[in-house]
Every structure is written in C-alpha cells, then in structure tokens.
Amino acid sequence: MSSKPYNARVVKACEYIAQHMDDELSLNVVSDVAAVSKFHFHRLFAAFTGVSVTRFVQLERFRRASYRLAFEPEKRVIDIALEAGFDSPEAFSRAFKRTFEQSPSEFRQAPRWPEWHQRLTTDYKPQGELPMDIRVVTFEPTKVAKLTHKGDPKNVLATAGKFIQWRKQTGLSPVGSSRTFGIPHSDPNTTPAEDFRWDVCGEIAEDVPANDFGVETAVIPGGRCAVVRHRGSHANMDDTIYHIYRHWLPKNNEEVRDFPCFFHYINFIHEVDECDLLTDIYIPLK
Question: What angle do the packed helices 3-19 and 38-49 form, to 10 degrees?
Fold first, then answer.
C-alpha cells in the first residue's frame, strides 16, 4: 500500500480528534476511526505527526486550554483543567508547565506566544474545507477601530489580546454586536518576520478617542469583493485563499483591487473548537 492512503487515514484520525475533544480518545477509538490495527497505528501516527496519539490529544486539549486562559479571564483554572481531561488543577498545572515552561496562571498573565507555537508544532496541519461557494458581493465602507501588529506573526495573538482589552475597557466596539476583522498586509509565508504587518479591527460607530493601547480609527473601503466562508482552523486558510487566486480569479476573468484581502471572524477560537471556526474571506475586486 502506498503512503498516500496511510496519510489520508492519519488525517482522518486527526480531524476526528479535533471534533471530539470532549469524548474518549484512546488508541483503540482513534485507530478504529482510521481503520488501522492498533498494533501498528501508534507507530503510523507518530511517523506522520511526530508525536504519539496520546501526546497529540493532550496538545490539542492544551491548545484549547491556552485560548481559554488568554482570552477568557473570567473562566476558572479548575474548569479549564476539567475540560482538558485532568482531575485536578494541580495535575493540569504540572502538565501545562512541563509543556510550555509557564504555569497556567503565568501564561494567563503574560503568554509567551512564540514559544507556545514551537511547543504545539506537529507535522499535522489542521484541516479546513476548500471553497465551494465563492460569491461576488458589494462590501459597504466600514469604519473600524484598528490596532496594528508589526513583526513576527507568531505574536499576533498578543496583539489580539491587547485589542480585546481595549474593547472591554471602552465598550466602543462590543464584540457581541460589532463585526471583527483581520487585515494581513502581506503573506506571512513569504514575508520576513520583522516586516510582517496585520491589523485587527472592530466595527465602530464613532471615531476612537486617544488611548494608551495604540488603537486608532480606520476605514475598510467599500467595493466589489469575492467572498467565501472558510470552515475550520485559521492555520489552514492559506489553502482557501490560494485556491481563489490560482483558480477562481483567472477562470472568472476578475482582477484584484489595490487593497489587501481581509477576514471577517464569525466566531472566535476561545468560544468554539478549532474545527468549528467560521471565517469569511474577502478578496477586493476591481
């Protein structure tokens, strides 16, 4: 049997884990999903992902716990620990610190996001669905509060956390009733880390007053856009975006406008599991 069918089985198992993190995820369960004997699956899984099934499950649960800690300060550590499958906050704290070299409380106060990315790296890339329904719409000009991130894209979550604090303190862009956007000014895969720039934006009705956060008023310009809904991990949005550029634009004789693509985040990583994320991707057109 070629490696391709085996790879597909491992991907299927990884996606099952991402969609069932609150269920039992033993080697027996996951190997059954992949339709591979448990006597061989643990080696097959490690060969393709770089970690064991047990460690992969723990890392995925730690990923979710990290978002809870960083972006939901009102959520108790004991509740996060139980959700991650630990019987006590003490056991969770020890395991979390072994993985990230920060205790949950230290991470909550000052997450070290670049190290976090390194610790969570596996050879598996969370999947998302390729676009099926690309539409052309007219996007209305939208006034937003904008906070610009400059530098390593691995620190983007720190900027997002700072913007969340501004939102909560001022109430000028309530997350429940105001749209949230992200605007990457270049491709993080091809841009030197020090030159990368990304704007996190929240819809507003009035201009942003002077503040210590660095948040300022901006406008996302209106005009024709191709839009597609991406379902799943933000880490895999590149596949959706490249599909539009490679296939949809030339097939439909469309040209891009002089403004970056931008994202409308329908929900957020601390609210839902990664597999349930919804993001509308806009490509400005002439």
Answer: 90
Q: How far is CA 125 from CA 31, 50, 53, 145, in A?
A: 19, 12, 15, 32
Structure confidence at residue 1 (pLDDT): 41
State pTM to two decimals.
Answer: 0.81
Type and span of the H or E element at 146? strand 142-150
Any idea what DSSP says for residue 232? B
My answer on whether 191 and 145 are in the same domain is yes
Task: Say how far residue 211 (Cα) sits from the centre of its chain.
Answer: 28
91 and 170 co-located in one domain: no
Q: Residue 136: its pLDDT value, please?
A: 97
Q: Residue 242 phi/psi, 5° resolution?
A: -65, -35
Separation between Cα atoms, residue 209 and residue 148, nearest integer Å: 16
Which pair of tokens denotes residue 194? 């020090």
Q: Residue ranges of the chain with pLDDT lower than 50?
A: 1-2
Residues 166 and 270 in one domain: yes
Domain of residue 207, CATH code: 3.20.80.10
* Residues with Cβ within 8 Å of residue 213, at least 6 apart in sequence: 147, 162, 163, 165, 166
Report the length, in residues, of the chain.
286
Identify whether 124 is part of a domain: no
Predicted local confidence at residue 143, as pLDDT: 98
Residue position matching structure tokens 């996951």: 30
Pair 142, 218 in one domain:
yes
The per-residue pLDDT for 126 is: 66
